[in-house]
Amino acid sequence: MPLPLSPAGPGSAGPPPLARLLGARLANHGPGFATVALDLGPSLCSPDGATARGVYAALAELAMDAAVAGWAPRGPPLRLVSLSLVERAPTGVRWMEAFARVAEAPGADPAAGCTVEVSVRRSDGTFAEVRGRYQPAGAGGCASAPAG
After folding, report:
1. Are residues 113 and 70 in contact, defined by beta-carbon separation less than 8 angstroms?
2. CA 20 to 30 Å from 128, out of 1, 35, 53, 91?
3. What's the pLDDT band for 144 if we cut at 50, 70, 90?
């Protein structure tokens, strides 16, 4: 599984389109963890200046994808099947950094999936917490729905 947000190189597609659209960048990564950083501008905020919650979710998902890719580089493809975010969006935030780590991995077996925890640190010194659950691609959801 290629590491998301890796710089483009030979045989690499480079960062995913969402990361390029947001301007997100991989700040740090290793086996089972990753940090993704994002500078915020008016285009990523609501009219009242609050950071849009979808931006939190997208940043968290990019960090989770990178952490999972580092945890199971040769395992079956895993996909995010649930994401939990409870947050009051602050105003005036200039940047965010999401640190993701694989928190629960039954038997350290990628085929069993994993839970990833994310802490989103903001320029105003506050944090948001996000959790996601990954399962092997094709296990439930749209990927395994019958055609027709």
Report:
1. no
2. 1
3. very low
Of 14, 33, 16, 27, the residue nearest 72 (C-alpha): 33
- Its sign, for the CA torsion 60, 129, 67, 138, is negative
**Neighbouring C-alpha atoms within 13 Å toward the C-beta of 114:** 28
Give the pTM. 0.78
Half-sphere exposure of 73 (CA within 13 A, CB side): 8
**Strand partners of residue 51:** 45
Q: How far apart are the first and last CA of the chain?
A: 30
**pLDDT for 49:** 79
- What is the band of 13 on the pLDDT scale with cuts at 50, 70, 90? low
61: closest CA among 100, 94, 89?
Answer: 100
Average pLDDT of the segment spanning 104-113: 80
Which tokens is 25 given?
Answer: 């960048």
- C-beta of residue 3 within 8 angstroms of C-beta of residue 16: no
